[in-house]
Amino acid sequence: MKARIVVVSGDGIGPEVTDAATAVLQKVATKYGHEFSFEDGLIGGIAIDKTGSALPDETITLAEGADAILLGAVGGPKWDNPAAAVRPEQGLLKIRKHFDLFANLRPVKTYPALAQYTPLRPEILENVDMLFIRELTGGIYFGHRQEQGDGDTAFDTEQYSVPEVARVAAVAYRAAEGRRKKLTSIDKANVLASSRLWRRTVVRLNEDYPEVALEHVLVDAMTMYMMTRPASFDVLVANNIFGDILTDEASVLAGSLGMLPSASLSGGTMGLYEPVHGSAPDIAGQGKANPTGAILSAALLLRYSLQLEEEAKAVEAAVDATLASGARTADITPRGSAYVSTTEYAQAVIEGI
Ligand code: IPM
Ligand code: MN
């Protein structure tokens, strides 16, 4: 098949990890007889430097007709001035909103070979296989806010409507139906009105998916259960901010934040794929970045935007084989030991496909 992929690599280690991911996709194309085209677009700090905007119109136009968007990371100390009128992160929020990518899928699994990089006991990590579904275009990220320059008040608002919750909950229920039929909805319904609406909506939707067992867990308790009994969860659904926070915590289970991929979807097949990690400016340009999150995001791109399940599985299997072979990037290597570079690691994955 033919596919048009727009690559917005962004800042810091972004370009290094998207290069790894596109090289993997290119290998998939060659091996399975597909034709993938890659077109670069600007986003984040580099876009601010070149155009003044964190997401220039040209990038949006480029992405409009694409089958999928592959994103690296945005941000860095250079653009961190709190007084700046435009921030790299705005580009990320804008592209998610523009394409109405309301469902952010973040699968989390553990790698026995990396257990030593987690602070948890190995038995806690056994059989962990979670799928987080984070609402991505609403809530406090997009609510009415007021920042008063140097003043002494500022606010952000958490707001959700029933349709906004229902559509992301439906994605979660459908995912649960195809898995272990268990859905955990995370909220703070003991305090927040928006969480009570969230809970009520998720409960009502359960009628349409009667075979899925629904449970509610308060977000504070969830942070604890994630570390004490992660294997007891299957699909989890959370609002934008809780999903953001909990998935960074969940990355501890995988051994490194560099391991986690994500897919951001709307109703159709167009999607945006990005690793969960950030731009890691401290290690940018040194070949130290772990491209696994980006490579596994490319696998999700094959699965969800191109419906190439066999190819997606081949990429995931090649990542498993690469880790099993002992190849390790800097983040999952004991301090002072030898590690493979970002490109060497990607090459090992490519050879494994
Ligand atoms: C993420 C990131 C972003 C978010 C930041 C960079 C705006 O942390 O994708 O998880 O908060 O959504
Ligand atoms: Mn985050």
Question: What's a quick, concise take on this entry?
Answer:
With 353 residues, this protein is of the alpha/beta class. Helices cover 41% and strands 18% of the residues.
Could you describe the 3D structure shown?
The protein is an alpha/beta fold. The chain has 2 domains: 1-106 and 257-353, 3-Layer(aba) Sandwich (Isopropylmalate Dehydrogenase), CATH 3.40.718; 119-254, 3-Layer(aba) Sandwich (Isopropylmalate Dehydrogenase), CATH 3.40.718. It has helices at 14-32, 45-51, 57-64, 88-98, 122-125, 162-177, 193-205, 219-228, 240-254, 292-304, 309-324, 342-352, and strands spanning 2-10, 35-40, 68-73, 103-109, 129-135, 145-147, 154-156, 182-187, 213-218, 235-238, 263-265, 271-273. The strands form 2 sheets. It has a 10-stranded mixed sheet, sandwiched between helices. Strand 6 and strand 7 form a beta hairpin. Helix 11 (309-324) crosses helix 12 (342-352). The site of manganese (II) ion has 2 residues, from helix 9. Residues 75, 89, 92, 244, 276, 278 line the site of 3-isopropylmalic acid.
Features:
41% helix; 2 domains; alpha/beta; 12 helices; ten-stranded mixed beta sheet; globular; Isopropylmalate Dehydrogenase; binds manganese (II) ion; two-stranded antiparallel sheet
Main β-sheet, spatial strand arrangement? 2-1-3-12-11-4-5-10-8-9
Q: How many domain units?
A: 2
Mind describing the biggest β-sheet? 10 strands, mixed
Regarding quaternary structure, what we see is single chain
| Unreliable runs | none
The gyration radius over C-alpha positions equals 20 Å
Please provide the ordered H/E string of secondary-structure elements: EHEHHEHEHEEEHEHEHEHEEHHH
DSSP summary: helix tally: 12
Q: Which structural class matches the secondary elements?
A: alpha/beta
Question: What fold name goes in the CATH topology slot of the largest domain?
Answer: Isopropylmalate Dehydrogenase
Assigned CATH architecture of the largest domain: 3-Layer(aba) Sandwich
- Distance N terminus to C terminus? 18 Å
Helix percentage: 40-55%
Shape: globular
By CATH reckoning, the class of the largest domain would read Alpha Beta
